Amino acid sequence: MENKTNGSVEAKPKVENGQLPDPADWAVTDVVNYFKAAGFQEQATAFQDQEIDGKSLLLMTRNDVLTGLSIKLGPALKIYEYHVKPLQTQHLKSNANAS
């Protein structure tokens, strides 16, 4: 893990064939482990409690993360901006390239 100057922590999930695995294939435990590795130990349990798997994660809106997970606002903002949104973008790009 690497601390970034903007306050986020970059997770280092498994890399397959030079790419991150597609989040759409993640189980709930993969999502939880991703956020634990990203430095959000306490908040990761919210994903477990709400049974958020990879497909659900990719469908989450900013409002879902900020209000639906019952976690503090600061960590929720970082989780959405530095993790959920980039994972959604990566997924969309990889699916566009695969077509």
What report would you give on this structure?
The longest helix has 26 residues, at 73-98. It contains five helices and two strands. 59% of the residues lie in helices and 4% in strands. β1 and β2 form a beta hairpin. The protein has 99 residues and is mostly helical. A two-stranded antiparallel sheet has the order 1-2. α1 runs antiparallel to α2. It has helices at residues 28-37, 41-49, 54-59, 62-68, 73-98, and strands spanning 2-3, 9-10. Residues 26-74 form the SAM domain.
List the helices and strands and how they pair.
Blueprint lengths: L1 E2 L5 E2 L17 H10 L3 H9 L4 H6 L2 H7 L4 H26 L1
Antiparallel strand pairs: 1-2
Helix pairs in contact: 1-2, 4-5
Tell me the radius of gyration.
Answer: 13 Å
Query: What best-fitting shape do the alpha-carbon axes yield?
Result: globular
Low-confidence stretches: 1-12
> In DSSP terms, counting alpha (H) and pi (I) runs of 4 or more, how many helices?
5
Alpha-carbon distance between the termini?
32 Å
Strand order of the largest sheet: 1-2
* Number of separate strands: 2
Q: List the helices and strands in order.
A: EEHHHHH
Proportion of residues in helical segments? 55-70%
Helical/strand content category:
mainly alpha
Q: Estimate the strand proportion.
A: under 5%
Taking the sheet with the most strands, its summary is: 2 strands, antiparallel
Overall pLDDT confidence:
86
